[in-house]
Design brief:
TIM Barrel; three-stranded parallel β-sheet; single chain
């Protein structure tokens, strides 16, 4: 059995006594290495990315568009102009030496994303329309867990549609739910039927709670900063105690609200999508460290929030790997184990991920 099997779950594997001394040393310390390739392995340890998107190449504007990691150099809004135009100008001429550029076609975006996932051994929850997700999955069946991007008012998706897609194996996670962009909170009455069907069918739900693009309210008129609060999930969690839900973007920057929710509702998980690469590294680390040191490291999941920039995925993993306050075991929990537990992956599924 390869050493990577030791990382399959948040527990230690007990091998036969005839195994070599290296295995014995690892087990004695219950050491869980990070994503780096182990000696004798030819592939990186697997990563579960809870926040991937299947989008068109022009979903954020006419490609190519560039971004600086940490979103450095974003200007203040000069109200004599239109913020959308100023933000687009920043993406057309990003003020950093090594911007991440978006592919220029739908095919190239899909191909580059899949290539990155293959190279880094990533399995991702893929959000988007049912049709686009199906196309991407057809190109790389073993790399994607089917999600469904959803927003009330934007998408003509009913609870019955969710039931049908789930029954056909085309929907395993309802994510990303982007109602915040429409000014709709998680405890809104019109969202309730969707939560009810997710609980009934045991479908995990990933809800956008936290950061949008800079100047979001001037790009999406109904967007409100107060909906960064994770506490909007409180009444839904009381009403639907079996609902599996994760807070996307970890509710940044309202960290106190998030910690209160995590303390009170032990079933809630978070992902670090977007904030892992869009925030300056010190700010991201401060927030992640608070979550971990408050005792919630076993409910933090990796997410890249890859939209049209596949080049953000690897730097996002590296930020987790080099976090000075995380142990190797905590890094593996964030990069794989916590999501495997949240998704309730079978042992056979986890074995396949580790044996690629």
């Amino acid at each position: 059995m390869p050493l990577s099997r030791l990382l399959i779950a948040p527990r230690c594997y007990t091998p036969p006594m005839r195994r070599g001394p290296l295995v014995a040393i690892l087990l004695a310390a219950c050491i869980v290495p990070s994503h780096a390739i182990l000696k004798g392995q030819t592939r990186p340890l697997p990563v579960l990315d809870m926040h991937l998107h299947a989008m068109a190449a022009d979903a954020q504007g006419p490609p190519p568009l560039g971004i600086c990691l940490g979103l450095v150099g974003i200007p203040a809004w000069d109200q004599r102009g239109v913020w959308a135009e100023q933000f687009l100008a920043w993406m057309k001429k990003p003020p950093c030496a090594d911007p991440v550029w978006s592919p220029t076609s739908d095919a190239a975006l899909q191909e580059e994303t899949i290539s990155t996932l293959n190279r880094l051994n990533i399995i991702g929850v893929l959000s988007g329309s049912a049709e686009r997700v199906a196309r991407w999955r057809q190109a790389a069946t073993d790399r994607f867990i089917p999600g469904l991007g959803f927003q009330i008012g934007r998408d003509a998706v009913t609870p019955a549609d969710i039931t049908a897609l789930h029954g056909k194996g085309q929907l395993a996670v309802l994510a990303e739910v982007t109602n915040q962009y429409a000014g709709i909170a998680a405890d809104a009455a019109r969202f309730e039927p969707y939560l009810a069907v997710a609980e009934a069918l045991d479908i995990p739900v990933g809800i956008h709670i936290g950061t949008g693009p800079p100047g979001a309210a001037h790009l999406f008129p109904a967007y409100r900063a107060r909906l960064h609060s994770a506490l909007q999930l409180e009444e839904p969690l009381v009403k639907h105690p079996k609902l599996r839900v994760y807070v996307m973007h970890a509710g940044w920057p309202l960290i106190d609200d998030l910690l209160a929710l995590l303390w009170t509702y032990r079933q809630v998980y978070v992902d670090v999508g977007a904030i892992v690469w869009a925030l300056p590294e010190p700010e991201f680390y401060r927030n992640l460290q608070r979550i971990v040191e408050a005792g919630f490291g076993n409910r933090v999941m990796f997410g890249s929030d890859q939209m049209i920039w596949p080049g953000v995925i690897e730097p996002s993993i590296r930020r987790i790997e080099r976090a000075p306050f995380l142990s190797d075991a905590q890094k593996r929990d964030i990069l794989y184990n916590n999501a495997a537990r949240f998704l309730r992956l079978s042992q056979a599924e986890m074995d396949r991920h580790h044996d690629r």
